[in-house]
Amino acid sequence: MQAKPIRHSWQLLYRVYRYILPLLEQEFAYWYKRAEQIPDEELRKQATASMNSKKFHCQGGSVYATQVLDHKEIVVPLIVAYQTISDYLDNLCDRSTSLDPVDFRQLHYSMQDALTPGAPLRDYYMYRDEKEDGGFLAGLVLRCQEMAGKLASYGQVQEEILTLSVLYSDLQVHKHIAKDKREAALFAWWDSYQDKYPEIRWQEFGAATGSTVGIFALFCLATQTEIEKSEVDALLNAYFPWIGGVHILLDYLIDLEEDKEGGDLNFVSYYHSDEEAYERLQFIIERAKESIAQLPHPQFHRLIVDGLIAFYLVDEKVNKQQPQIYMIAKRLLKKASGFTSILFYVNSMVVRRQ
Question: Rounded to whole angstroms, how far apart are CA atoms 154 and 47?
Fold first, then answer.
C-alpha cells in the first residue's frame, strides 16, 4: 500500500501496531529459533541472550518501515536481520571469551558483507575458538544481502550506508579491547575525524557511531525509484552525528550507574560536570532538530527524535541514577514535545509484553 507521509504520533503508532509488529514478530521468531539451534554452547548462549535482552532494538528500528508500508516486506526483514547481527556481535565482543581486536574486526566484516549484495561469505569466526553456529551469522548476512538487493535505489545509498557501518564496527573494535588500551585506541581513532566534525567532542563522535538508525533511514530512502544525491546527503548529515548522537548518548546516560559499577566504558562519564553533560546533550538534541528541518517529511524524523528522548528518559533505570543524573533526564524530557509520554507508554507495552 502507498502510505501518506506521517505527520502525527497517532499515525505512527497505528501503523506500528497494524502493519509492522506482526511482520517483525514473524521475522524475530524465525531468527530466535535459528539461534536456539546453534551447536556451540557459547555462541548459542550469546545469540539467545542478545535477542532476549535487546529485542527492543529491532522493534525501534522497524518503526522506520512505517514510512514505506508498500515496501515493509523488504524493509522489516532487512532491519531485523541487520540489527540482530549488531546485537549478537556486541554480545560476542562484550560478554564472551575474547579481547582480541583482530577477532572483533573479523566478526564485524559480516556487517559490511551484509550490506553488499553478492559479496562472498567469510570465516567470521576465524580468530576465536568457538566456530560452529549452524549457519546463523551467515544466514543473517545472506538475508540482508537479499533484501538490500531488492531496494530500488540501493546503489545510490550503499556508499553512505557502508560508511556508517564501518564507523559502527570501528567503535565496537576499539571499545571492547582491554580496558588499559581502549581509551588510547578511541583517541587515535578520533584524531582521524575531528577536523570533519568540529562541533562535537570525541565522546560524542564515539556515541554517534554506535547508532544504526541512520542506516535504517537510508534503507527507507532507497525504496524510492528515484532519489537525488542532495536527499542522501541531507539524511546522512542529519543522522550522523546528530540523531545518532541523541540516540546513543541517551542510552549511555541511563546506563551511567550500571556501567560505573561494571567498569564498562560510558561516554557520558567523560563530561566534566553534570551541568556540562546537560548542556551538551541539549545542544545535540537541538542540532538534531535543526537538521531535520532540511529533510523531506520532517515530521516523521521529529517524531523519531522526540520518541528517543521519551523512550530512554522515562525508563525505570533513570530512577536508579544519582539525583543529579535524574535531574538531567527530567530537564531534557521536559523540553520534548507533548506527544512523547504517549509514545513512550505504548512502546513500553510493546517491549514489556515479550
Answer: 29
122 with 155: CB under 8 angstroms?
Answer: no
Structural domain includes residue 172: no
Cα separation of 179 and 319, whole Å?
A: 28
Domain boundaries, position 16: 1-150
- The answer to whether residues 118 and 145 touch, using CB atoms and an 8 Å cutoff, is yes
Helix (H) or strand (E) holding 40: none
**CA distance readout (Å), 280 to 77, 199, 332:** 35, 10, 11
Which residues have CB under 8 Å from 276's CB, separation 6+? none
Three-state DSSP at 176 gives coil
pTM (two decimals): 0.94
- Reported as a single tens digit per residue, the pLDDT across 67-106 is 999 999 999 999 999 999 999 999 999 876 778 999 999 9
Provide the grid cell at 303: 517524531
